[in-house]
Amino acid sequence: MNNNGCSVEVKGLTKKFGDFTAVNNIDFCISKGEIFGFLGPNGSGKTTTIRMLIGLMDPTSGSANVAGYDVAKNSEKVKKVIGYMSQKFSLYDDLSVSENIDFFAGVYQTNRATRQQKKEEIIKIAELFGKEDKLTGEMAGAYKQHLALGCAMINDPQVIFLDEPTAGVDPVARRKFWHTIKMLAKKGVTVLVTTHYMDEAENCDRIALISDGVIVACDTPENLKRDRMKGVLLEIECSNAMRALEILRIDPSLHEVSLYGVFLHVVVEDESASEMIKKRLADNNISIKRIEKIMPALEDVFVSLVEEQQKKR
Question: 198 with 298: CB under 8 angstroms?
Fold first, then answer.
């Protein structure tokens, strides 16, 4: 950990591929034991940032410090004190559960005297008692993800990086996975996690929203919802949401229009715009069942800030 209390500290971090800037001069600090969410659209720079932080990719400029080590100067030391779980399933399907754990114990050079204890802990985390000899490729995705998390923790890392760890996993399994993440954080492990599930992001202590390689907001979920939406958010329940979406999106007086489940979410300057919206939809034979001002969800803030950033292109 740095002298300023940051377990992960990023200053001016930039990555360019030719003329394309994937990560553009970003800054953030993550405290010990903090769950830090990293949210953004596909191609926004999340995975590139993680790869720089774990020493798999050199930055073009800027600096990154992880667990007290400068990533550029001490990448091998960084790798010994971190855990990493990639977007894609990172274990070997043709090895058994036990063999995968043994393999990663060797990769991380885990103390031989404690390997059996570590294996038992991972089996417990992944709920795989009695399945130690089962081929990993034959297991359900939820078990695989828990096993992958356990293997990423085999070296007792100070910081763990989780890149879309629950992609394709059912909601019940995701809930269990996040319970494990919270337990790790309580033990002082720092967690940086990327996700595209907004309900998961609510579990984070803080969230950085990244778009086009730029961090457009960084705060707690509650503060983001309270402070970062410009204007008033209206929720509309109507007879033909898709048609209403097409109609309202071409109105320049409306800041943002998006589909939220079966409802429309419309950001307006003030609540009086609801009368204009009612008339516009009625003129197009769309009946409104309900239109009301609501508090924004994290997804509304996410969409709003990303669209605002994309308008700057």
Answer: yes
Nearest partner of 148 among 183, 112, 196, 180, judged by Cα: 180
Average pLDDT, the chain: 89
Closest C-alpha among 160, 176, 225, 162 to residue 198: 225
- Please indicate whether the domains covering 6-220 and 230-295 agree at the CATH topology level: no
What are the extents of the domains in the chain? 6-220, 230-295
The CATH T-level fold of domain 230-295 is Alpha-Beta Plaits (3.30.70)
Q: What is the DSSP string of 251-313?
A: -TTSSEEEEETTEEEEEESSTTHHHHHHHHHHHTT--EEEEEE-PPPHHHHHHHHHHHHHTT-
- Helix, strand, coil shares, percent, the chain, to 5: 35, 30, 35
pLDDT in tens, 19-62: 999 999 999 999 999 999 999 888 889 999 999 999 989 999 99
Output the pTM of the full model: 0.84
Choices 1.10.10.10, 3.40.190.10, 3.90.770.10, 3.40.50.300: CATH for 6-220: 3.40.50.300
